[in-house]
Specification:
633 residues; alpha+beta; 17 helices; 29% helix; globular
Length: 633
């Protein structure tokens, strides 16, 4: 108790407080120490304190001095609590330019008021009118966690994104777009490229919270980026929602260091839930990295927290679904009509049954609007008028609107875990080996597809350790980054497919010589759905290897790569790949590779693989066969 009074006295010597206020503030500090409020989950959550990885103690993840009242508040919860109590006695007016500490840190004020029962005659409570007006404008009734699926053309959203929607009272599904959302993202002039990824990996950007209308986010994710959106309505009580909004009010101007893998959009949304209901401790479950799909998974698995789930298909998903209801000739007709000057003058359209005519007009409209949003419309300034004509023509037909795309059988939160561990047994060139395989994140083409995007592969930190007889355990392969985007083309949607792969991998360059070398690979090409649910792709690829055993220390080449996969059953996938590379710079040689892989799903989070490969390079043939079992978590 003497230490508490001494700490309070030190603070009050600095702050110009009236004597009576100083006495009461000292009493509050003493009681706070007696109750050990600085050690409570609620205070730790409001200040974003987490245990240090190396040294003892805690440290706040907030990186803005304006978030703290004490000079050492970032690392000293008790000091910050003392200084916060003292700040509440400020006699300054509450203004927009300089908010009163009670209003600036309103979540802390109300929590401390609950714990210490402030005497209003000795500590005057501020009205904080701007905060109450803001909450009144939001008119909150519920919270919805929004998960736009992965978007491979933006490094910030490679494995999805999350944001929080504030559902207002009286809103329904038709007016839900008018709700507001809270999101956390990197403040960056770059939106992609190597610089963005590099800075995002090492905290080179500031992360900030922001608020924006939901319809803008739907336009961005659903329409511009063609990402399906999943909406998870959560079960928070009114007082918890109010507590979360008070904390958001504190965070809006605050800067955090943004990290692509851990302190990202998904992680910091969980910190809001922890502030609303500290007993959740959701952020504690992600000490190393936070994948958005995994954070959604822990939220939905929390007993009683999930209320309802809704699916909002992307514009491209709707267009693909409606194409499936037409023949190839009817799809071509829809494309022609979309770009034609006069709908009524199309005899091929008027000859169709009314129900089919309606479907053709719907596809024509969706296609033209899809091109408009992408900025590729061939009609230019006449696009809007043509869209109105198509809608008018469709409205004249007494036919029920087409059914929306079906909800995917498996939600993203019910797919396999993004981390993977496995063991493998195999033989290569007559020698047996055993492998330990570890992957940090996220999904490859041979993993169980349920809950993930078809044709998408995103892996970071894929590690393979191998042991052979009479040899010590060695690093066989480390995939630093491995991204493959195979987007199927059809009659109306014409995306390109691409891949990029950076790794350390061993290659046979001579008999009994298999050095570990940096390896870079990239490619661009086309992909398409085939018969029987198969999926095929072809790319022009380039590769580069660097190692002292190569002529001139490097080898750069290019060549075609083809492949595909088919799901024989819901649990059995077969994948075939073939590649030819001609290295013309550095070490000149030719490399041919063929692989036949199979995956058998054992459960949602377990699978077995059989992998066969043949490779010819540097005048020798290498053959390998492997069987492995993996667990996802």
């Amino acid at each position: 108790m003497n230490a508490a009074r001494a700490a309070a006295a030190a603070i009050f010597l600095i702050l110009p407080l009236p004597l009576v206020a100083g006495d009461y503030a000292a009493e509050l500090v003493t009681r706070a120490h007696e109750l050990k409020l600085a050690e409570r989950l609620e205070w730790q959550a409001l200040l974003h304190y987490k245990p240090r990885l190396i040294r003892s103690g805690v440290e706040s993840q907030a990186d803005d001095a304006a978030f703290f009242n004490a000079p050492d508040g970032k690392t000293n919860p008790a000091s910050e609590l003392d200084a916060t109590l003292a700040a509440f006695f400020s006699t300054a007016e509450d203004t927009e330019a300089q908010p009163h500490p009670q209003c600036r840190f309103i979540a802390r004020y109300y929590w401390l008021q609950q714990q210490l029962s402030f005497d209003p005659t000795r500590l005057q409570q501020q009205r904080c009118q701007r905060f109450h007006d803001w909450v009144a404008a939001l008119n909150p009734q519920a919270l919805t966690l929004v998960f736009p699926a992965a978007y491979l053309n933006n490094p910030a959203s490679l494995y999805g994104h999350t944001l929080l929607r504030i559902d207002a009272r009286g809103q329904d599904e038709q007016t839900r777009l008018l709700a507001y959302t809270i999101s956390y993202a990197a403040s960056s002039p770059e939106k992609g490229g190597f610089v963005f990824v590099a800075k995002g990996l090492f905290g080179g950007y500031s992360g900030i919270f922001s608020i924006s209308p939901y319809y803008l986010k739907v336009t961005e994710y659903n329409d511009l980026e063609n990402r399906d959106i999943w909406e998870y309505e959560l079960n928070f009580a009114d007082d918890e929602i109010h507590r979360l909004l008070m904390h958001v009010w504190e965070l809006i101007p605050i800067r955090f260091d943004y990290y692509f893998f851990d302190e990202n959009c998904a992680y910091h949304l969980l910190s809001l839930f922890d502030a609303a209901r500290p007993s959740l401790r959701l952020t504690d479950r992600f000490p190393l990295w936070a994948v958005p799909a995994d954070t959604v998974r822990v939220v939905t698995q929390e007993p009683g927290l999930l209320r309802a789930v809704r699916y909002r298909p992307a514009r491209s998903t709707i267009l693909r679904h409606r194409q499936q209801q037409l023949s190839r000739e009817q799809i071509r007709l829809a494309q022609t009509i979309a770009l034609a000057p006069n709908t009524e003058a199309q005899p091929a359209l008027t000859a169709l049954p009314e129900s089919t005519r309606a479907r053709v007009l719907e596809v024509a409209y969706e296609y033209l609007d899809y091109e408009r949003v992408r900025g590729h419309s061939p009609l230019g300034e006449h696009t809007s008028a043509r869209l109105q004509e198509l809608l008018l023509a469709r409205s004249r037909l007494d036919v029920i609107n087409a059914e929306p795309p079906p909800v995917p059988r498996v939600r993203p939160d019910r797919g396999h875990g993004s981390a993977r561990i496995g063991v493998a047994l195999g033989r290569e060139n007559g020698r047996a080996f055993q492998e330990l395989r570890l992957r940090a994140v996220y999904h490859d083409l041979l993993d169980p597809e349920a809950g993930y995007n078809r044709g998408a592969q995103i892996e970071f930190g894929n590690l393979v350790l191998r042991h052979q007889a009479h040899e010590s355990l060695r690093l066989q392969q480390l995939d630093i980054i491995d991204i493959t985007s195979m987007s199927a083309r059809d009659a109306l949607l014409r995306p390109y497919s691409w891949k990029i792969h950076v790794s350390l991998a061993r290659k046979h360059v001579a008999l009994d010589l298999e050095p570990l070398m940096p390896h870079l690979q990239g490619g661009v090409g086309l992909a398409a759905e085939g018969i029987g649910g198969s999926f095929w792709y072809a790319l022009l690829e380039g590769e580069a290897d660097i190692n002292g055993h190569l002529d001139r220390g490097y080898a750069i080449g290019a060549g075609p790569g083809i492949g595909g996969f088919v799901d024989v059953t819901a649990h059995w996938r077969i994948q075939l790949e073939a590649r030819h590379q001609r290295y013309l710079l550095g070490d000149e040689h030719t490399e041919n590779a063929l692989a036949l892989n199979q995956r058998f799903t054992l459960g949602r989070d377990s699978a077995m693989r059989i992998e066969l490969s043949r490779r010819r390079a540097f005048g020798q043939v290498s053959r390998a066969a492997t069987i492995s079992c993996s667990l996802y978590f």
